[in-house]
TrEMBL record:
Residue intervals of the AMP-binding enzyme C-terminal domain: 598-677
CDD domains referenced in this protein's UniProt entry, alphabetically: ACS
Entry's EC annotation: 6.2.1.1
Reactions catalysed: acetate + ATP + CoA = acetyl-CoA + AMP + diphosphate
GO molecular function, one term: ATP binding
Positions of the Acetyl-coenzyme A synthetase N-terminal domain: 65-127
Domain AMP-dependent synthetase/ligase: 136-537
InterPro entries attached to this UniProt entry: Ac_CoA_lig, ACAS_N, AMP-bd_C, AMP-bd_C_sf, AMP-binding_CS, AMP-dep_synth/lig_dom, ANL_N_sf
Descriptive protein name: Acetyl-coenzyme A synthetase
Family membership: Belongs to the ATP-dependent AMP-binding enzyme family.
Keywords: ATP-binding, Ligase, Nucleotide-binding, Signal
Length: 717
């Protein structure tokens, strides 16, 4: 029997304090054992299946994982049936271990995948109500820490139920009903996850847009999803900087066709929202001074509306395959795609992955530093931890505010046990030295997570030694907006760690390496190719909103029969996976996914720009930096420096500040083939200082462009 499920209670865990491991300076390729954790039970109680298909070896936890993993693929439907039955409280569940042939229908050819068809549940009721009903009334569900250290709010499960219910009723009073798309453009105040949960309660589909996106980006997302309700706040505050969110929403609504689409804008006043509880520590009096421009018959003040609402709202019983949320992400075209996730499959997968990857226990304080505007915030700030009945941590500020000790100060004060962040944040802290984390008591930490990009060995060592004191497992979790939850990761107490590697596939996920040209499976170890998945899993996105053809084209047509991740991968001699980068035109800047085509379309909006090409190049902290090249129109009379400034502002305005290029080169020409195609490979090599490895450039229409570009880039280095 090998699963821990909530109702089977705690697993025994040893905390061996004396384990010291020698981490060699160069860690790549070596494994690091971490045996503080007794291997947790990881899989469903599949005793009967296991009896029929006995494990070959039980010598080590890793061997056990391997046989369990093989079993989870061989008996995939039974596996997910068990997980679904254990993790979710269903309103209706027509499956059991003897009847689960129909638990998944459809496949990759048509993208008509359905998991648990006919079953019914509500995600919000699973994340809150059932814990209240199971006696967790007084357990803290959410800890919020605001921009200023010590500005803290805590909500028990029963408080959360009242708050979320009131928001759901407020939404209802404004006409929101099952199936409606609600756009949420909010700062990381508690009302952001609460509004997401309120939508889930009503069966409304939330579309959270990260509050760092510009008005133009917000507008295109509202327009594409035909979202008649937008929920926002007057302002956001990050590192003491005020972001005028309501003003940005107002700007967004006058663009595209949003004026006709948006019927209601529901506005939280940040200061009233975070001071509405008795235990609130007022910290930012005066920040809300900027007046809200209330638009009559459209804008509604949530802080006035909420006290009028009944603090209980019955949850809507949803079909397993009803859409639960949309999340926009970047692809290789200029148009972001709205990935649609489901109700039950997503919930099963978020709960399953957080519990196995992080060995999450009900008394854990789980702190994921992501913003709710990204998939990591959806799965591991909101849904994963709450579906598991643990305590989740919501952080409004940045790792460097007010100083580089912010994360560790919070770990110490809140006794955080599981901590999850991106390598870019770790790298930004390393330069302040080991002394910073040493000042704090970090002994509550058990597991450290990494997500969003490969973690380089130097960052890994620092995270492991300076933060984890060589006692915490680092889980390197690889996944995507599309996958809903972790796909590849090491597991604490099970998989020896290998710095820089996201280790091995998660249970139930059939990962394969494909030859990028032939599409054939590359067998064996010590191989390279592209990463693909050979079969549906419950947490995968089911379609792109309003464009199912694009969903098929992007994920299932490149390699027939497989889900294509878009990532290149190496599998080393031990079978460990190393992600080596995207193979499409998608960049990963500070863990944010940005399409080169999106930045290019922003640049060519400038009347002086004739053509633009964008590539990525390695950056010590951000992982990747954006390098843009632009040619100007004949009529352009602008000075280059002035133009560069305007182009930066343009990208900030079209996408958001996080997409602003690090380098913009105004060039007389771009490397074009004779047939008129831009050779990005040449731009990439020149940007990374590898102009000596340009390869074959005989197809270039004008080879002299290479020297011009080398000179231009040289001026920026
Ligand atoms: O390239 C991979 C990289 O991030 C991409 C997915 O980005 P997004 O949908 O924004 O989701 C980010 C958070 C899950 C992937 O295609 N990526 C994500 N995690 C890792 C990673 N690359 C290497 N190692 C990881 N652990």
């Amino acid at each position: 029997a090998f699963i821990h499920s909530l109702d089977r209670g705690q697993i025994v865990r040893s905390r061996v304090e004396s384990v010291t491991l020698n981490v060699a300076k160069e860690l790549t390729g070596k494994t690091v054992d971490n045996d503080q954790h007794v291997p947790p039970d990881h899989m469903p109680d599949m005793e009967e299946i296991a009896l029929k298909y006995p494990a070959k070896s039980e010598n080590t936890a890793l061997e056990r994982y391997k046989s369990d993993y093989a079993l989870s693929l061989a008996k995939n439907k039974q596996f997910w049936q068990k997980r679904a039955a254990e993790l979710i409280t269903w309103d209706h569940y027509p499956y059991d271990e003897n009847k689960c042939d129909d638990i998944m229908m459809g496949g990759f050819e048509f993208g008509d995948i359905a998991w648990f068809p006919g079953a019914k549940m509500n995600v919000c009721a699973n994340a809150i109500d059932r814990h209240v009903q199971n006696g967790k009334t007084h357990q803290v569900a959410m800890i919020w820490e605001g921009d200023e250290p010590g500005q803290v709010l805590k909500f028990t499960y029963s408080e959360l139920l009242r708050k979320v219910s009131a928001i759901a009723n407020a939404l209802k009073s404004q006409g929101v009903k099952k199936g409606d798309v609600v756009t949420i453009y909010m700062p990381m105040i508690p009302q952001l996850p609460m509004t997401m949960l309120a939508c889930m309660r009503l069966g409304a589909v939330h579309s959270v847009v990260f509050a760092g996106f510009s008005s133009a980006a917000l507008s295109s997302r509202i327009s594409a999803s035909k979202s008649s309700i937008v929920v926002t706040a007057d302002i956001g505050v990050r590192a003491a900087k005020v972001i005028p969110l309501k003003k940005i929403v107002d700007e967004a609504i006058v663009m595209n066709d949003c004026k006709d689409i948006v019927k209601r804008v529901l506005v939280y006043e940040r200061e009233r929202s975070i001071a509405s509880d008795d235990d609130a520590v007022p910290g930012d009096v005066g920040l809300s001074d900027n007046k809200i421009n209330w638009v009559p018959n459209r804008d509604v003040n949530m802080n006035d509306l909420l006290p009028k609402q009944r603090p209980y709202c019955p949850p809507e019983s949803m079909d397993a395959e009803d859409p639960s949320f949309i999340l926009y992400t970047s692809g290789s075209t200029g148009q972001p795609k709205g990935l649609v996730h489901t109700t039950a499959g997503y919930a099963v997968y978020a709960a399953h992955t957080i519990q196995t990857t992080f060995d999450l226990q009900p008394n854990d304080i789980f702190a994921c530093m992501a913003d709710c505007g990204w998939i990591t915030g959806h799965s591991y700030v909101v849904y994963g931890p709450l579906l598991s009945g643990s305590t989740t941590f919501i952080f409004e500020s940045t790792p460097l505010y007010p100083d580089a000790g912010r994360y560790w100060d919070m770990v110490q004060r809140h006794k955080i046990s599981l901590f999850y962040t991106a390598p870019t944040a770790v790298r930004s802290l390393i330069r302040y030295g080991d002394d910073v984390p040493k000042k704090y008591d970090l002994s509550s930490l058990r597991i450290l997570g990494s997500v969003g990009e490969p973690i380089n060995p130097a960052a890994w060592s620092w995270y492991y030694e300076a933060v984890g004191n060589k006692k915490c497992t680092i889980v390197d979790t690889y996944w995507q907006t599309e996958t809903g939850g972790h796909i590849l990761t090491n597991l604490p107490g099970v998989t020896p760690m290998k710095p820089g590697s996201c280790a091995l596939p998660h249970y139930g996920i059939d990962c394969v390496v494909l030859d990028s040209v032939t599409g054939e499976i590359v067998e064996g170890d010590d191989v390279e190719g592209v990463l693909a998945i050979r079969g549906p899993w419950p947490g995968m996105a089911r379609t792109c909103l309003g464009d199912h053809a694009r969903y098929l084209e992007t994920y299932f047509r490149p390699y027939e029969g497989y889900y294509f991740t878009g990532d290149a991968v190496r599998r080393d001699k031990d079978g460990y996976y190393f992600i080596t980068g995207r193979v499409d035109d998608v960049l990963n800047v500070s863990g944010h996914r940005i399409g080169t085509a999106e930045v290019e379309s922003a640049l060519v909006k400038h009347p002086s720009v004739a053509q633009a090409a964008v590539v990525g190049r390695p950056h010590a902290i951000k992982g990747e930096a954006i390098v843009a090249f632009a040619t100007v129109t004949e009529s352009n009379t602008e000075d280059d420096d002035e133009l560069v400034k305007e182009l930066r502002a343009l990208v900030r305005g079209e996408i958001g500040p996080f997409a602003s290029p690090d380098i913009i080169c105004i060039t007389p020409s771009l490397p074009m083939t004779r047939s008129g195609k831009i050779m990005r490979r040449v731009l990439r090599k020149i940007s990374t200082g590898e102009a000596d490895q340009l390869g074959d450039v005989s197809t270039l229409a004008d080879p002299s462009v290479v020297d011009t570009l080398i000179d231009l880039i040289g001026k920026h280095d």
